[in-house]
Design a protein that fits this description.
With 396 residues, the protein is mostly helical. It has helices spanning 6-33, 39-66, 95-113, 123-146, 150-153, 162-180, 195-214, 222-250, 255-269, 278-300, 310-328, 341-371, 378-383, 386-390. The chain has a single domain (6-390), classed as Ammonium transporter fold.
């Protein structure tokens, strides 16, 4: 298109703001789940991603992800957003707005990883980690799926980031958790310190997800409307599935569990939001929530200390959603006469994204260990990180 659409531009401007709000929402969600003496450190791990992610995206990330290139890598033609002007190819929005919308995804994705390392990773090491991860891991994977790379060109569907965001962050999170080792604090002391924070953060995430999924239509059209509807239904179904399972197994439906279930429903529908029917979204929300619920139980027996269950919620939820897109997609899905081709492609694409994230994360972590101390001191871990790291207290 040669000109912009005022409606499309307004919607993507709004969606960009909604997605950016998700990162402070994540800060509250994660912050409420940890001990009170480390809540600021935990929230800062999300908040600092807003600064790091934005600058890394402008400096290199956007060009690597969306610059003209081959199957594996974009280019360096748009370093510093050089040449990003006019109307975005194939759309009716400014190119700079497309870059802004995508930047909000690049901000929240590495922030998701922090949930696996809270209360035991040095803040300086974490800052350097997400700088490197954003450029070396996220940007190339984004190119593979959305920037003309091999996964998207092969026909794999990822409407808003099942592989690009959730699988990559979930897998990287569990790799970090394994390489860091378990927390030394007694499990009985690791209960959520502020459940209202969890509810507030989860509500902000749900609200922002309308921009995350609805905005990924990249226009104010029927696809965006359907994506908002399927997003709502999957979250609702995920919430009710989790609450039902928890009520049945533990005899008590918890507020934290209800909100986690909703978030997992949102994760699960992300790759499929614009491709499935409302009833398909409900089924995906239930299945994704159930898979994550049981994954958490299995991980509890594994000895891996993924502090806030990032892999179970985002890795498993993203994988289930990506694979089920091959089942429930209205065009090409298994249930709609498409056979197994799309299902196979969805599975391969999801596994490839997870494998890439794992390899890059191991490499970055090994590098960090060679140049700095990655884990906090034992006494700081026990007493909490807010005062020694930031010189502040959440609750005076």
């Amino acid at each position: 298109m040669e000109s912009t659409s005022a409606a499309d531009t307004a919607w993507i401007l709004t969606s960009s703001a909604l997605v950016l709000l998700m990162t402070p929402g994540l800060a509250f969600f994660y912050g409420g789940l940890v001990r009170g003496q480390s809540v600021l450190n935990t929230m800062m791990m999300s908040v600092i991603a807003m600064g790091i992610g934005a600058l890394c995206w402008v400096a290199l990330g956007y060009s690597i992800a969306f610059g003209d290139g081959g199957a594996w890598f974009g280019s360096f033609e748009h370093i510093g957003l050089r040449g990003v002007e006019g109307v975005e190819d194939g759309l009716a929005i400014p190119a700079i707005l497309f870059a802004m919308f995508q930047m909000t995804f690049a901000i929240i994705t590495p922030a998701l990883i922090s949930g696996a390392v809270v209360e035991r990773m040095r803040f300086s090491a974490y800052v350097l980690f997400i700088m490197l991860w954003s450029i070396v891991c996220y940007a190339p994977l984004c190119h593979w799926v959305w920037g003309g790379g091999w996964i998207g060109s092969w026909g794999v569907l990822d409407f808003a980031g099942g592989t690009v965001v959730h699988i990559s962050a979930g897998v990287s999170a569990v790799v970090c958790a394994i390489m860091l080792g378990r927390r030394g604090t007694q499990e009985s002391e690791l209960r959520p310190h502020n459940v209202p924070f969890v509810l507030l953060g989860g509500g902000l995430l749900w609200f922002g997800w309308f921009g995350f999924n609805g905005g990924s239509a990249l226009a104010a059209n029927e696809t965006a409307a359907m994506a908002v509807m399927t997003t709502t239904l999957a979250a609702a179904a995920g919430m009710m599935a989790w609450t039902t399972l928890e009520w049945r197994q533990r005899r008590r439906p918890s507020a934290v569990g209800a909100m986690i279930g909703a978030v997992v429903g949102l994760v699960t529908i992300t790759p499929a939001a614009g491709f499935v029917s409302p009833m398909g979204a409900i089924a995906m929300g239930v299945l994704g929530s159930a898979a994550a619920f049981y994954a958490i139980s299995l991980f509890a027996k594994s000895g891996i200390d993924d502090s806030l269950d990032v892999f179970a919620c985002h890795g498993v939820g993203g994988l289930v959603g990506s694979v089920l897109t091959g089942v429930f997609a209205l065009e090409g899905g298994l249930l709609y006469g498409g056979g197994f081709e799309l299902l196979m492609k969805q599975t391969v694409g999801a596994l490839a994204g997870g494998l890439w994230a794992a390899i890059v994360t191991v490499g970055i972590f090994v590098f960090l260990r060679s140049v700095m101390r990655v884990r906090v001191l034992e006494d700081q871990e026990e007493s909490g990180l807010d005062l020694p790291v930031h010189g502040e207290e959440a609750y005076a």
